[in-house]
Design brief:
Elements lengths: L1 H14 L1 H29 L11 E9 L5 E4 L2 E2 L1 H9 L3 E10 L2 E5 L5 E5 L10 E4 L3 H4 L4 E4 L10 E5 H8 L4 H4 L3 E4 L3 E9 L12 E4 L6 H6 L10 E9 L5 H15 L6 E7 L19 H28 L5 H9 L4 H33 L15 H27 L3 H6 L6 H38 L9 E5 L6 H12 L4 E7 L9 E6 L8 E7 L4 H5 L3 E4 L11 E4 H6 L12 E4 L2 E9 L14 E4 L7 E6 L6 H18 L7 E3 H7 L2 H35 L1 H9 L4 H35 L10 H27 L3 H5 L3
Parallel strand pairs: 7-12, 9-11, 18-23, 20-22
Antiparallel strand pairs: 1-2, 1-13, 1-14, 3-13, 4-7, 4-13, 5-6, 5-10, 8-11, 9-12, 10-11, 15-24, 15-25, 16-24, 17-18, 17-21, 19-22, 20-23, 21-22
């Protein structure tokens, strides 16, 4: 029986080529979107899910509140948390700590040559080397290929390598022969290989390749450069993971961690510790100096919703076209019933036909998946790729193949199987035709409502992004490089390098700073206007030396710039701070006093307001101070006027040479500040791309559905069109008659979509402190676009029907 159904379904698909093509195209686009987004979601959600007992593994996180009132979230914790936690915390199966170590790696060759390697994880800026406790290999599971797990990291200056790293360093020699060889880190740490482990093949954010023994911190170079035993904020450099014993809750451990801090940290730091689940690490972007590439979970959910919408549109297309085709198949249904087919048998036949169409659509979608992902490679992580024959992908496709025919085919199958054979064979029509036509109209309105939502959203998002690019931020960012000094280096070397940069030909100005004016990670400080004020005010802290304001061309409204100093001794404030002080005129603030940490500082200058964060956040009161202990970054203004790209690159090369004179072992890494500013809106640009792509796909799916309905309508009304032509109707009149119903559906969809789009985009714009207003013309433009698309889609069929010879339609009457 099933074999017979397959043959009949195949014949019907071949016989009705146009409808089959439209159905397959609509479904394949919806399924392709689902496959692409499933591939992205499956990739992001599968990081570090393979560890045995992973649901009980947590990372210890740190929240630090400074004396200034600034609050920071760290992935790093003080090193003593490891030893005190091991001794004092209960309910732990294991605890292990390590320190990420950024290093240039050299390996002496047998021929006397020294080979140099990057210390970063391949394809990232993350450290591939860690200084790890032996317990690390008990908490995380590795397969040992050489060496003894129990003793490999016991002795100082021992190192365990992954197999890929060992092959990279020493070539294709037996792994047992690698044991005892030497690897040198930063020209100062010589470690002996004591073990080889198999690389993790699953997706992980902990893809370390070199594991130096923790005991190496007790002597030599590492002892002098990495502080141990300190609870102070600037010595927080350890990552600590714990594995809870069964039955232990994170809440209980969080309480014990609070007791641990109270017992040992004293007054050294205002610290709170808490546990973060291993599976949440990949999605936590709200921490400082987190070396992990994080993903955005809400964006992932939005992608999934978009995929479901697009698949729904494809299914609606199928239902629309299948029910529209039902009149042509009414006689077929009547004959089958007369010959003994049951209603269940007819439903099964039509479901088999839907299954075959879906199967073809899935095959086509799978073929399109890789090109689609390749087209959007700049918006998705580099490790994402589509693997058709992976178990998870096959299961997902099997679910799609099973569910889609039920959703798309069950209603049309019931419609076709419900026809009375008497009425069908008399060719007098079908029952409930008006209700089904109403349903097709409703589904078409739904399709275009979704499409118009995306059209309107795309217009508004594009307009807002253009606004963010054009709005003056209050400072100049043109031709400015930012360069970070090695972490923790002396102020003397930093200032010496700044002077060298100033002498480089092609460099106009150099300023020392903590961070640039506008950043995703601005700093705060708590100040008072009177020494006896009880409540302190939170304002933005901007740290830069005397060259900061001139370099960024921040407009000085009154007073003067900061003077050269080694310590904070005066403030320059912005207009918002001026108003917070109750002043109207900038000159009135000069000589006023601001108290910070109970020390009085005079206001010597007032600058115009400038943005310290993206346009998502309002301009806040800000104080510019010269705080030498935080000025570890260089802002370099290039003399770009009249220079071409080649000359600019030569200037950068000369700056790199100056860098090497002070930091011969550190990499000269720079960024153009304009690129940093653009990165503030990266997620918004991705949202815009998502909206535009979704708009294109939904409009295309709606159009092919509309094309199919127009094709059906013109065929159904062929005799009516013929009679009207015989009676003198013009081509224009007939075309208008056929298109006006579809135009009405578009207008109804616009009326429904406009308030929905306004509400959704209004909520989105509330995420910007400075944003455009939503004007009526946006919705008018969306309607014009939709009607234009409809006229192009339906117009061809209308004109083709209008110019057809009426004799062909009327000769059977």
């Amino acid at each position: 029986m099933f074999k017979s159904y397959l043959k009949i379904a195949l014949r019907n698909i071949v016989r009705h080529k146009a409808y089959s093509f439209v159905n397959i195209l609509g479904l394949s686009l919806g399924i392709c979107a689902c496959i692409a987004i499933y591939t992205i979601a499956d990739y992001e959600l599968s990081f570090d899910t393979f560890h045995p007992g992973g649901e009980r593994i947590y990372r210890i996180m740190a929240n630090v509140t400074e004396k200034t009132g600034e609050k920071f979230h760290f992935a790093r914790v003080p090193q003593p948390v490891i030893t005190t936690g091991r001794n004092d915390l209960t309910g732990l199966e294991n605890i292990a700590g390590y320190i990420p170590y950024y290093a240039t790696i050299t390996v002496p060759g047998n021929d006397g040559r020294v080979k140099t390697f990057s210390g970063n994880v391949a394809g990232s800026g993350n450290a591939g080397t860690i200084i790890a406790e032996p317990q690390y290999f008990n908490l995380f599971s590795y397969t040992w290929l050489a060496g003894n797990k129990a003793t490999a990291l016991q002795a100082p200056y021992s190192v365990v390598l992954t197999k890929s790293r060992a092959l990279q360093y020493f070539g294709k020699i037996p792994l047992s022969g690698v044991i005892g060889k030497q690897v040198v880190y930063n020209d100062s740490v010589t470690a002996v290989v004591t073990g080889i482990v198999k690389d993790w093949t699953e997706k992980t954010d902990l893809g370390y390749t070199d594991f130096i023994s923790f005991s190496s911190l007790n002597s030599g170079y590492l002892k002098n450069n990495i502080t141990t035993g300190s609870w102070k904020e600037h010595d927080m450099d350890a990552w600590v993971f714990v594995k809870l014993a069964r039955g232990t809750t994170p809440t209980r451990l969080n309480a014990e961690l609070a007791g641990l801090v109270n017992k040992y940290a004293g007054n050294q730091i205002n610290l709170s510790l808490w546990l973060e689940p291993l599976n949440d690490i990949h999605f936590n972007a709200d921490v400082i100096e987190n070396p992990i590439r994080t993903a955005n979970l809400p964006t992932l959910y939005i992608l999934m919703a978009v995929a479901l919408f697009i698949l729904a549109l494809g299914i609606i297309n199928f239902i629309n076209l299948s029910t529209a085709q039902s009149i042509q198949r009414a006689k077929e249904t009547g004959i089958r019933k007369v010959l003994g087919s049951s209603k269940k048998g007819l439903i099964a036949l039509f479901l088999v036909e839907t299954f075959m169409l879906t199967l073809v659509a899935v095959i086509l979608s799978a073929a399109l998946a890789k090109p689609v992902l390749a087209a959007f490679k700049s918006f998705i992580p580099g490790g994402i790729s589509f693997h058709l024959f992976s178990s998870s992908t096959l299961i997902f496709l099997a679910v799609i193949i099973f569910i889609t025919p039920l959703l798309a085919g069950l209603y049309p199958a019931k419609v076709l199987s419900s026809y009375s054979p008497v009425i069908s064979l008399k060719a007098t029509g079908t029952q409930k035709g008006s209700e089904r036509w109403l349903m097709r109209k409703t589904l078409t309105v739904f399709q275009f409502t979704i499409s118009l939502l995306f059209v309107t959203g795309s217009i508004i998002i594009t307009k807002q992004l253009n606004y963010t690019r054009s709005k003056y931020p209050g400072f100049s960012s043109n031709a400015i490089l930012t360069v970070d000094a090695p972490r923790g280096d002396s102020a003397y070397k930093i200032r010496a390098l700044a002077e060298k940069f100033k002498q480089v030909a092609g460099i106009e100005r150099v300023a020392l700073q903590w961070i640039p004016p506008m950043t995703s990670n601005s700093r705060g400080m708590q100040v008072k206007l009177k020494n006896n004020d009880v409540k302190e005010m939170q304002v933005t802290q901007v740290d830069g030396n005397e060259d900061y304001i001139p370099l960024y061309e921040v407009k000085l409204l009154a007073g003067r710039n900061l003077r050269h100093a080694d310590t904070v001794n005066e403030f320059v404030i912005n207009e918002s701070m001026l108003h917070l002080m109750g002043k109207k005129n900038p000159a009135d603030a000069l000589g006023e006093t601001i108290y910070w940490n109970n020390i009085a500082y005079p206001v010597v200058g007032v600058v115009a307001d400038f943005h310290t964060k993206s346009l998502h956040d309002p301009i806040t009161p800000a104080c510019i101070i010269n705080r030498q202990d935080r000025e570890g970054s260089f802002a370099i203004k290039l003399a770009s006027k009249g220079q071409d790209a080649g000359e600019v690159q030569k200037t950068i090369s000369r700056a790199a040479e100056a860098w090497k004179e002070i930091y011969p072992n550190a990499t000269f890494a720079y960024k153009f500040y304009d690129e940093t500013l653009d990165a503030l809106y990266e997620k918004d640009r991705q949202t815009a791309t998502l909206m535009k792509t979704s708009m294109a796909v939904t409009i295309f799916i709606s159009c092919i559905g509309l094309f199919g309905l127009a094709l059906f309508t013109t065929r159904r009304r062929a005799k009516e069109i013929g009679i009207r032509k015989v009676l003198g109707a013009s081509i224009t009149q007939i075309s208008a008659m056929l298109t006006k119903d579809f135009a009405a559906l578009i207008i109804i969809a616009l009326l429904i979509a406009s308030p929905l789009a306004w509400y959704v985009m209004h909520l989105w714009l509330q995420g910007f402190a400075y944003h455009i207003t939503i004007n009526t013309w946006v919705f008018v433009m969306s309607g014009i676009i939709a009607i234009g698309i409809m006229l192009v889609t339906v117009g061809y069929q209308s004109i083709k029907a209008a110019i057809a010879n009426p004799v062909n339609a009327l000769r059977s009457e």
